[in-house]
Design goal:
Elements lengths: L1 H33 L13 H12 L4 H14 L10 H19 L6 E2 L3 H29 L3 H28 L15 H20 L12 H34 L3 H21 L4 E2 L5
Antiparallel strand pairs: 1-2
Length: 293
């Protein structure tokens, strides 16, 4: 009887995780498709592959069928023309394979990952580059077949690589390492006054960078390093993961509302990559325990 109850609960957890992943992936992919940039046929702000990598790292590589099925289903659901259907399967295979290889690199030694050593942090960046590179490679082949210019194909592939690398570095950490289960006892105050000041400082600077001065000639992006360093110092890498995700989503909303050019969007993503590198190396205490162990 106990074995049956345990098995039933295990199936419920698997179903819950699978449903949440497919719903979040579908939403992320749909938002990226709707966010067209200068008529270019690729997703400039696409966090869906980052969700796939976080799924495999957090719950294990045995979830690999899901990371192939999700992009395949999303390709047919969101914005694929009849001419582009032939590339849906290659794109899904490339994304699933790249994300799977990246997850294996991150969790090759142990399912209990400790991001304190610098070598492990470097491994995470290498894995992110592998995932982004695999996604860009299939688009490079696609553009080389359909476009006569190799330079244009390399430019598109390069932007796709930067876009996916940005999303993985900035958005996947919060999905990998943050415990969303409400297991803590609520006490007053729920957050300290210092944390309130950190949130206010980050929000004000995000507004200055991505709102008031988003298209200014003199960009104040470097000011974001100050609250991020403050949060990382006081709350470790879990706090940095939350701050990075907030900054990434703020950049996406800014691009939706203010409609940056393609070049401006790519430059912004390069700055976000530098910000993610700075946050990850400033305080290397990024523990992860797989909840499925």
């Amino acid at each position: 009887m106990q074995a049956s109850v345990a098995s039933s609960r295990g199936l419920e957890n698997v179903a819950r995780v699978a449903l949440a992943y497919f719903v979040l992936y579908s939403i992320g992919d749909a938002l990226a498709v709707w966010h067209a940039v200068d008529g270019v046929d690729f997703k400039l702000w696409n966090a869906a592959p980052a969700m796939s990598l976080a799924l495999l790292v957090r719950f294990g590589v045995r979830w690999w069928p899901a990371v192939f099925a999700a992009p395949l289903a999303a390709g047919f659901l969101h914005g694929a023309t009849t001419e582009g259907w032939v590339w849906i399967a290659p794109r899904a295979i490339a994304e699933g394979s790249s994300v799977l290889i990246a997850a294996i690199l991150i969790s090759a030694k142990d399912r209990s990952i400790d991001f304190a050593p610098l070598r492990t942090v470097v491994t995470f960046f290498v894995a992110a580059a592998v995932a982004a590179g695999g996604i860009a490679l299939v688009r490079l082949c696609e553009v080389l077949i359909t476009a006569p210019s190799e330079t244009a194909a390399l430019a598109v592939a390069g932007r796709i690589f930067v876009a996916n690398l940005t999303a993985i570095l900035c958005f996947s950490p919060i999905l990998m390492f943050y415990d969303f289960a409400p297991t803590r006892v609520l006490r007053w105050p729920l957050i300290s006054y210092e944390t309130v000041m950190q949130i206010a400082a980050l929000g004000a600077i995000v507004w200055e960078v991505f709102g008031r001065f988003a298209n200014a000639e003199v960009h104040f992006f470097y000011v974001l390093f100050l609250p991020l360093a403050w949060i990382t110092t006081r709350h470790g890498q879990r706090g940095a993961a939350i701050a990075l995700a907030f900054v990434f989503l703020s950049a996406v909303v800014s691009d939706w509302l203010l409609i940056h050019t393609l070049r401006a969007g790519t430059e912004l993503q390069l700055r976000l990559i530098v910000l993610a590198v700075s946050a990850s190396t400033s305080d290397r205490k990024w523990p992860l325990r797989s909840p499925m162990n």
